[in-house]
């Protein structure tokens, strides 16, 4: 019995040991290994973060999209999958060991979160007009600024850029709302700033364009010209990921087809013969191609690297970039260095983070206008001439009397550089007071140090140029912006009811100061250069100023959602600005919008319509688009007055610019009506908008006679009322269900602007060859109309008005015949009529993409139709009245060659050379291949072997094909004149470019 008991005791011990081992073994087996493959509609996704929710355990998918992770509790653990550009996904393990995942691109998902003012919304819940631009479409293009890359990618925006290094594109959102042409407001990571040439587009994660008042009213007085919200990349939880990209681009500038020496001399002698003048003593042994002198092959190098990662408690993103552009014109270039750090940390209910960007940009600016210079100079002029100061050729009175500029000379004798160091960012903190209530404070700061230098060396670049000594000018400026914002966000659901509310306060202070100095007779050094410091030379001049503006704001927004069917959004903002007088500092800007999702209604049944939403809104925006002190009189303290017997000079002061203390806000009122729809299992999506806007109390500088005592510039007044209306349509179709994937997006924008009032009983204003009048568009062409050429003396004699008066009695055969529109028997300015508009009637964008296995193809087309533009360079080449070069193959009228539309060549002043005629107006419509690129993703076995998660090589081109009737260099030109937007007088053209790029990550 004792033996048995001893055995039972041993068995008990063994049982206990077995139980312990079983428990340990069970614990080990409870740590289930989960694996799977992560794809995007069949395409494997490497580098996707995989994390157990609520823990630090994480991994990333490999080059083949596969992942493996050990979970601690296979029954309750939840896996979180995250990847930049894709909607995050949470999947419970539920005891499974194999979990394959199909991530969805956010841009194609109705549940995509869209960044709006001071918050986010689901794309499906938007009630305003907001365009979401795919970041990949922006970043694939070779551009210096963000704005350049937006053309054709969104409706309602007009973008015009140029190929000059460091140039910044002009962008208008839904038309011209004032007469100053202000750019839209940029908001980057919540900071009110700019996205100019010192901002790196490679750092962007998302772009939203707020186009109407309901969307933009939360920004109040600064949003009248629209808002572009940019969010930069952030880190995601998981191991560190490293990405690198490099792109090298070759650029070429379009050229004129110009006459060589033989052809030029023949036409030039003809022009002198017709004027009964002796010929110039042209040097026929020289045949200079001035385009070869001024232009070169441009080169762009663009390198970017970033590091990102983190954990549940905190994430980080660090990037660095270098951009270098050797210009397609001699002595031009642009360099930029960028550095960014974005971090975010969370502990319980407390979150803190920052977004910091540092950039240094240096621009070697263009001198003169090489686009005009190359046609003004004659091919018979040598590049160098030792007889001229500086040693450059530019003609003389006997052999080549022209006032063209030698582009090599001015580029060599003038050095202009503009360098900018900018630091900007914000520090933010959030406190989750309740599950539905969050407080946020953001402290934003931006500072810029600008340094402009101009060195003018001794020498000349044009005929009869007065002597200037060596001159050095330096200009240094400093700007500082401080923004403090406090917001309180509430978000709660009550059954089918959803309520979101925002209350906020903002304060912004801007300070700007500038000093400059100039010295003449700068000393030359032994190396052939100059001592380019301001302690050299003499005749010192100094200048400087500083100013400050303040803006304080209070704002609120309420959103109501009932069952995803009925959506209402209300916004109000009050701004107080220091730019106006005491009685007009504050402006209030409300808006309201609503949407009805019909597809959610019980009565709606459709197998092919997946989503249908109607939207409408109404709201106001404001603008204080004047200088810091324009409401205050300008006092000149330099005046002196002699007094007394000795006529001693006494210091005085006088008001030189009249002031308007009653300046007040410009106010933009907007209406928008639209719908969003999705068809065919969400493969086809369509968005349409119709908008009406009206800007009243437009701030303009009103011209006054000097006899009023106003000699310090025209004072600002609230004088004009402008209107815009238009239609926008975007349609996207994508099919990603098979190995061959493709997508297409087409967008259409129509726009009509109208002057409703110019104020002060003024009905029209003239600028150059344009007229802006009540009831019409801004800057329509107002010129004489041509009516062919006179073919004989009889034609001249028979061209009479109804009273029998010969209209152009001094004309000769081969001269231009003009229409006598008022019938008075003479050609005068009274015969001018409106003959067209510089504004396009509609613009189109077409974006195509396709991929198969490792290859992908992308094409972006852009078209603009209906604009009439002024070809300024052709008005130089074809007028024959002075000594400029001519178009190759031009056929002036002669008795032997009457079948031409080009008048006779005549050196001197004739009506043929008038610049205010429709002879120089052309159809400005065009279609352009903005971008085409083919990419190849390296195969996974190769990537695995070299340790990369992905790699891609891309060959692309920009502006390679342009279809147009315009005879200038580029129908897509831009200028800074509001009233002469269609005037091309040597605008720098867009460049043709070919790029080779490489991108990889690990």
Could you please describe the fold and organization of this structure?
The structure is a single chain. By secondary structure, the protein is mainly beta. Among the domains are: 32-102, Immunoglobulin-like, CATH 2.60.40; 113-243, TonB-dependent receptor, plug domain (Ferric Hydroxamate Uptake Protein, Chain A, domain 1, Beta Complex); 786-831, no CATH class. It contains eleven helices and 53 strands. It has a 22-stranded antiparallel barrel. It has a five-stranded mixed β-sheet with strand order 11-16-17-14-15. Strands 1, 2, 5 and 8 form a four-stranded mixed β-sheet that branches. Strand 19 and strand 20 form a beta hairpin. It is globular. The protein starts with a helix and ends with a strand. Mean pLDDT is 89; it is low at 1-30.
Main attributes of the structure:
single chain; 1002 residues; mainly beta; Immunoglobulin-like; 5-stranded mixed β-sheet; 53 strands; globular; signal; TonB-dep_OMP_SusC/RagA_CS; transmembrane; CarboxyPept-like_regulatory; cell outer membrane
